[in-house]
Queue: 4 jobs
Job 1
Amino acid sequence: MLDDLTSGFNIANSLSLKDRYNEMLGFTPDEVEWLMEATGVDKSLIDVDMEFLYNGYLFHANGENKVYNPSMILYFFDQVTSNKNNPEYIIDENLKMDYGRLRRLISDEQNSATLLKIAQDNSILSDITLKFSIDELHENKSFVSLLFYMGLLTIDREMEGSLLLKMPNYSIRTIFWEAETSD
């Protein structure tokens, strides 16, 4: 989409869908463990399932390991070290503000129906469009691709010649629900 907004960005390469970069876009479980030690996070203060809340991202069907969302896990660790407790809110309000844009996108009836289907089924069968225009967001394939690029969907597996995309974790399900039910 940056291509559509500025003429100089068309020289970039998108690496996000290449299998060798899958783990580069998040924290692996080992990196999360290392990060806890390096930042002094007291594991005894954590009484939630971090994997359930923040893990689950896969950026290529052949990717070996799912990764944690870096923004979410760093927010969580900051809350644990600052408050000596799990955060009261599992999702950083700043991140939720970014996803406020989702509400504007679902003002389109087709996009709203797609989002509702994803929220109900927790997944959708689609391909990921590598390049699309902001003017094409009313097209289902482009809208679903945007949800993938925003981190709201991730690859589950290849299925029927396409990709089964799903919500990666509970935090994202919460964002979907709030976007779908808000006025």
Job 2
Amino acid sequence: MPRLASYLCQRLSSLPLDRRSFLRQAGCGFGAVALSSLLAQGDFGAAAEQNSDPLAPRQPHFAAKAKSVIYLYMDGGPSQVDTFDPKPRLAAESGKPFAMKIEPTQFNNIGATLASPWKFQQHGNSGTPVSELFPGVAQHADKLAVIRSMTSQFPEHTSANYFLHTGTGIQGRPSMGAWFGYGLGSECRDLPGFVVINGGLVPPGGLDNFNSGFLPASYQGSIFTAANPPVANINRSEPTDQLQKNKLALLKKLDEERLAATGKNGAVESAIANYELAYRMQTVVPGLTDLKDETAATQQLYGLDAKFPHTASFARQCLLARRLVERGVRFIELTCPNCGHDRWDQHSGLKKGHEDNALAVDQPIAALLTDLAQRGLLDSTLVIFSGEFGRTPFAQGSDGRDHNPFGFSLWLAGGGIKGGTIYGQTDEFGYKAVENKAEIHDLHATMLHLLGIDHTRLTFRFSGRDMRLTDVHGKVIKEILS
């Protein structure tokens, strides 16, 4: 009996039996033969087998205008009426009861109509109005396509962040950066295809904003920091390189044995690919993040020497983003530095909070646009500036603004964008979108389009249906395309 028990323990596996394993073991394996035949057909569902290298470059659906994305995520929700959507009526009626019907707000502490504390001026040949909060970005007005009519389905941060990043307001879905990696792979073998540079504030909703969800783990966002070194454990703990190679070789052998025993297993394959990428990163990342080879003029342009420490912090993020684009990384997202004002989320102290946040990001963003253009990279790099929603044109309390998902502003620049463009319009107060109303699904569809992807065809089979970043929604905003 002990001999039989020992035999059975060796034969049993604690892993659950997945569908592929069931088909391989049942009916003498004929089910697996049929499945393999179906998977070999390129148009069967959306989970067609990927290249053995999950980040290998893949052909787009059509000619792309851009190769990479830099997403400047302004966590908390910048106020549209204080940045890119001037509303003279706010000044005329400031201090008076708000003249429109007010939708339910996040905190229901509704004050009077609140004028913008900042002046707007028209800039560039296009005459695009930009608030004095952004003197640096204003110099690039003719490069920007400003969308003034963006909307969100969610008025609170966590769900709105998930919606912005994943196309749905619930936790656990793949981030847009993961979708770009899944659809296009990466042109860089030694770095992740999706990099998030954490400036000090992880947005509400946490790291699931950057997760791969049901996509293979190879496509999840890799978190770098603005500090040096930017990645934890980037230096090996083993005393010699050969000892580390021996350990990795053993890991790979064990993983491959598991693959041979269980059949195709996305989790194991992703683990193998991630171990190999992590090893290559140990060689590449130190050189990537060592900015000594940047000229003094470039460092000064970005603001690495700025007296305001948060400007210097975001400057490093923007310069790292440019260096990542140069190396072929597909999707880079930057997050806000911690200026001590809870992001752009100014429920009170609007003037001080927005001024500090703008001071932190304006010079580095302007430098990024200048630097990309000078190096011939802006034409192939899509740059986006956006929060998860906007803010109310009436006060919260006396000197703040509450959340506003009904109409807010963002801008795009670079690869395939028609600069000097304004798309959409809000009402006279800047409260709700009233012309060319857009939604986050449209933004995602447009981003994918500029990188050569038809958003309706970028799908992945999960839970019995073909899933996509834009779900069953989304249209390309053609009016902002060059």
Job 3
Amino acid sequence: MNILLVCSGNTCRSPLAAAILSDKLARLPEFADATVQSAGVAAWDGTPASEGSYLVALERGLDLSSHRARMLTADQVRDADLILTMGDAHARRVAELGGEQKVYLLAEYAGQPREDRDIPDPMGGDVAGYRETATLLDELLTAAIARMRAERRR
């Protein structure tokens, strides 16, 4: 299973979500075949993770030191089995690239639709905002894994 997480610049939300999801899936034998990647709809290829995401990842025992931003491509969309986006604009771009049958807003896929369906972007904010984003991502990804498990059993 190839899972792709998508945000805007691929420096804050999607790399942090990918690190959290990879860590969670690594503990589940039924997901031994899973790969988790991230990309951005407006990424500057090669940009490292934002300082806030890097620090919050470290606090959680995760390492984003080797992360480099990648612009979302049609090949990534084609190769993914499941694409989870941080917001509506990201989902629209995935659909434009041919992924309309496998793209979901993370909050919706997790069964926790929010009034504002987009995951807040902490870019430019203080570390507390990054921590809030990481906590929200952790909760939503836990619920998303439950759905993935249920769908695999079908």
Job 4
Amino acid sequence: MTGETKRVTLNWVQDLRFVGGEPGGPLITIDGDNAEGPGPMATLLLAAAACTGSDVVDILKKMRVPFRELTLEVAGIRREEHPRRYVSIHLDYRIVGTEEEAKIRRAIDLSLEKYCSVVHSLAPDIVVAYGLSLA
């Protein structure tokens, strides 16, 4: 089975700060000290949020569910011992401008269960849960 190969380059800048991205694409700063950019573990949460957020936006458009805002807040619980990986991740979706809760929950479930590549790239024993609030 062959698939798409993604490539990135990451360059050390100073201290625990790195800059990288896809060749020819925009660059991001990842800072192990969380001073000039999010650290690696926060970046992982951001990647999961952006992945599922993109899925939800796309699915809701296909469902013809209009909305004005989508905000995701993500919390990850890490192990105390090394490796200090995530053992659970909780995503809170806040959507403004619609009351179609059943369709929104369906979009979120499709994202987390089928489409979100980042979530599906995590260790299978990481518990992923979500909450939803509409305004």
